[in-house]
Hints:
Number of helices: 5
Distance between the termini: 7 Å
Amino acid sequence: MNVLSEGGGAVDAVEVAIRVLEDKEITNAGYGSNLSLDGTVECDATIVDHFGRSGAVGAVGQIQHPIHLARLILDYSAKPLSLRRVPPNLLAGPGATDFAESLHMPVVPPDGLVSHAARERWLKWARDLKAAERRISQSNEGSEAGGAIQEYAEDSEENETLQYPAFAVQQSQLYFSGQYPSGMSQTPTAGTASPLSMSDRLVV
């Protein structure tokens, strides 16, 4: 609310809110997220503004604030490129990390987002997986749905053209331990994991 009261937009407000959550080990996004199959942190994030424009990253590693990278991609997607190239609105894996580095965004070491608790959860999960694979050849134990954090905000001024408030929605997610490296859910796909009905009036 401070961002909005100081003149910031809805996108600014929800990005700030998500960044705070990404720094909290208790959320499954950013630092302290559950680890992928190879013991690393890979995150998805998306941002959609009130015009429906989106920026997203999927299975991105070594980025402490993937929601900020999604925001940078959103901003970058509105800039024309030479030779009629089309700017991206979704980048995944190492390509997303390289893009972040090209924009001078900090890239942390591979273990920089791994908390002690997340490592302990992953080690326990790995032991459980081996035990399960010894008992049965096919198991559904790794099919649990992932958890996500999502934020909505509404700009203080209504958009007269759309006749709707200026909404923004952002989401940031990782998975329960054991996600395949570079695997993605629907989170970075605008309009699927980030539903936003224009009839809703949700305010952070």
